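Hey L., structure's done. Input below.
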Amino acid sequence: MKGSHLGELEELVLLTVGSLYDEAYGVAVMDEIREKAGRDMNISAVHAVLRRLEEKGLLKSQMGGSTNERGGRRKRLFTLTKAGKEVLDESIALRTTLYQRIPNINYNFSA
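Output:
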């Protein structure tokens, strides 16, 4: 596996691919991130991240079947690899551990 450090956007895309399971392709990932995270991305950025995650061994891809709605073009479908799931597991464990270390005090955030 080539480098397991994830940037925020890589982690978001990896989580989205995992949540879409067998329907994860570029446009679906972009739409899901827009809907769930409120982040607008262009399709080129999504494809760049998907390729980078595949190069790192965290995703794998295969071509899906052609459809009439896409003019006979096929979709490249992405899925998590075992290494991708492990990186996400490590990430959530680290975040949870750090979050739980925040003291349980009354934060007064009034302006």
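The longest helix spans residues 82-100. The beta strands are 59-66, 74-80.

-- N.
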